[in-house]
Sequence to fold (518 residues):
Amino acid sequence: MQDRTYPDPTPNLETEPFWAAAKDEKLLLKYCRTCGKAHYYPRAVCPLCGSTETEWREASGRGEIYSFTQFRRAPVPYVLAYVTLIEGPAMLTNVVDCEFDDLKIGQPVGVTFRDTQAGFKLPVFRPV
Amino acid sequence: MTSNHLAFIAGAFEHPTRKAIDKTVAQLHAESALGALADAGLTKEDVDGYFCAGDAPGLGGMSIAEYLNLNLTHTDSTETGGSSYLIHVGHAVQAIAQGKCKVALITLAGRPRADGATMAQATPRALLPPEESFERPYGPVIPALYAMAAKRHMYEYGTTSEQLAWIKVAASHHAQHNKHAMLRDVVSVEEVINSPIIADPIHRLDCCVVSDGGGAVIVVSPEVARDLGDRCVGIKAHAEAVKHLSGGYFDLTFTGAVVTGPKAFAEAGIVPTDIDYASIYDSFTITVLETVEDLGFCQKGKGGAFVADGNLISGVGKLPFNTDGGGLCNNHPTNRGGMTKVIEAVRQLRGEAHPNVQVNNCGLALVHGTGGAISTRMGSATLILERNDA
Fold:
């Protein structure tokens, strides 16, 4: 199946480490040192407890599909999905390398990466 | 007048245009404002409060205030997307109760069809929202976001495409009587589920229309309302909430209406079965289905059975909804459907809806708005309105 063209992220002061690690095909999560939980999207301030003591940790890259859809009106149809990571939070993503019609809610998926237009890498998921 | 509300809707106007190639956005705001003022029996000289959202050109409400040459003591440009105008009604009630203004004008207008229907605009880097890079590269188009909520609702509760289709069918039964509606043909469940898939499980006919247009309402103090008479509609309750992705821990099968519904019913001192008519934001059929559950019109997860078999059709079902045809069939001015929801509820409470869809003895109406997107961030708002002599 033909792949879509992936737009670039716009890293900022809070998220540069995420996108730098993605270039090495590592998925980072922000964890809170105070409440111990992971959150998404990554912030300097923990959205779960309000602590400013947050740190980056590499994620397992494993999760399961919470919900998904195939956007068929696009020039190259693609799957938009929320994937719940085993670390807890869910993230918006695409599901690739699959027969779209075979996907199911609850299906296990693992992270993989796709090149963006200007040379970043975007974390996406595929069935495992 | 027997009611003791803090404020009243005295005027309402829906701009008749659906494609405004010959009008500017400011002009559409102004024409809507003048229409609502005339409907109320007021003039722009009476306006001392102005409310608008991001569809108004310029910084907040200042440019339209200048265009109309308003003399203001209060302004508010709260922005929650398509639900903004319900929140403006609520905030106008508060401002009037506090003596900040007496006659509040709320406007909406835009022309996405005339301008080519593009919503994409370059945002300066410093103003990009913090979630932006974690969403945009994945292609989170609006129908796909709503589709994910629908798919999860189907997974958890067994909701079907046929049940969702009934929402469009009901809207089309109403729209056939509205000469301004974009889609006036009555459609069947089969026609909805056989229309092309946009983002599964959402079909083309599960989506609202894209239209130009506008609207305005006038909210006034009890003293002003007393002079204007029984066409004023009492504002009995208002509630608002913001639901978002909560740091990655969320549930797409409900909306912010789980907060605003109970709050609004408690403030009004009534229960869902007291409601005679409901205007429910209908960007997509799934928006209506989750909302009727969240507002308490049926049990959570039972929305599919509730909306089926014509239960939302005026004169047929238990909960007549969107009797102008709603966003699904009538219009969705500048991709913001909250204003027209308020306007049709006002028509119903005045007994001024089309005779074929007018609810008999309509005394209490609910209006619900859902702005933003139900799979990311939404501003939810509920109003409960009451006929003046009810």
